Amino acid sequence: MTGTRLTPSILTAAAFGYAFLYLPIAMLVFYSFNASSRLAVWGGFTLRWYTALLTDSQLLTAAWRSLQIAAIAASVASVLGLMAALALVRFGPFRGRTLLAGLIGAPLVVPDVVLGLALLLFFVALGSLVGWPAQRGMTTITLAHAGFGVAYATVVIRARLIRFDATIEEAARDLGAPPWRVFRRVTLPLLLPALAAAWLLAFTLSLDDLVVASFVSGPGASTLPMVIFSKVRLGLSPEVNALASLLMLFVVLAVGASLALLHRRRG
Q1: Which residue, among 69, 84, 73, has the nearest Cα to 151 in the 3D structure?
Q2: For residues 76 and 146, what is the distance between their CA atoms, to the nearest angstrom?
Q3: Vertex 152: Cα angle to 148 and 156 (nearest 5)
Q4: Cα pseudo-dihedral 68, 72, 77, 82, rounded to 10
Q5: For the chain, what are the domain ranges?
Q6: Region 198-221: what's the mean pLDDT?
């Protein structure tokens, strides 16, 4: 069976597509070294915007807050996603299964504006009824991100469970291992790649979210996307370019490390 032949037209379309995706990123990194504060004017090479970024307390505080929120929300979403995936795949038909599947799938298709408004109304009503949360802030953002992160985590883990070889667990039970030990020593290690993928996906979605966080945040609880958006509205700043370049460097290093580990594992 022969593979698909790459014609010049396909290569040209692919080249334009990749250029459309990555050329703006390359320009952003390039202009982060621009000595001029005006984006359209090249004033020479400089690192002063990276130095200024290290002294910008607003951006650094927002970045640290976003990383904390993303880590906690991704961890909660992964645990709840694992439980939901086990219920949908392993428990068979049960009352409320269709409702559970629908509730999990809803955040995947509901617009962020609707989801953010709904969560805002929910937190306001909850605060009026029970007095918690007293105000919106880091806690409400974390709960909101964990809420929609569960849907994505469940999809990833459920796909792995569907292809899971149950005979390995049966062999462990035949050898006398109790259910909890089978899950801890057999099932969980085999699900670790899916759990890691689910955690990274939920982490990325939380770190990238702007719309939902804008609805459920409060004074003094702005996330990094919110701070960047507010700065961009006042005009493009080279500090924002420097921050975006550092984020891109972090992503490149993380992807490179994962590929290296995967290559070592296969080798």
Answers
A1: 84
A2: 6
A3: 160
A4: 130
A5: 61-221
A6: 93
Burial class of residue 67 (count of CB atoms within 10 Å of its CB; 0-12, 13-18, 19+): middle
Query: What is the per-residue pLDDT across 39-88, written as a single tens digit (0 to 9) for each?
Result: 777 888 899 999 988 888 988 899 999 999 999 999 999 999 999 999 99
Question: What is the secondary structure of 106-154 as a DSSP string?
Answer: HHHHS-HHHHHHHHHHHHHHHHHHH--SSS-SHHHHHHHHHHHHHHHHH
Give residue 16's Cα distance to chain centre.
28
CA distance 120 to 254: 34
- Superfamily name with CATH number, domain 61-221: MetI-like (1.10.3720.10)
- The confidence band for 205, taking pLDDT boundaries of 50, 70 and 90, is very high
Structural tokens at position 56: 């910008």
CB count in 10 Å sphere of residue 16: 10
Cα–Cα distances in angstroms (integers) from residue 46 to residues 27, 36, 219, 239, 244, in the given order: 15, 9, 35, 12, 16
Read off the tokens for 248: 């891109």
3-state percent breakdown (helix, strand, coil) of the chain, nearest 5: 75, 0, 20
Computed on alpha carbons and rounded to an integer, the radius of gyration of the chain in Å comes to 23
pTM over 0.70: yes
Q: How many CA atoms lie within 13 A of 28 on its CB side?
A: 18
Q: What one-character-per-residue DSSP string does 7-67 give?
A: -HHHHHHHHHHHHHHHHHHHHHHHHTTBSSSSTTS---B--HHHHHHHT-HHHHHHHHHHH
Question: For the chain, what's the residue count?
Answer: 267
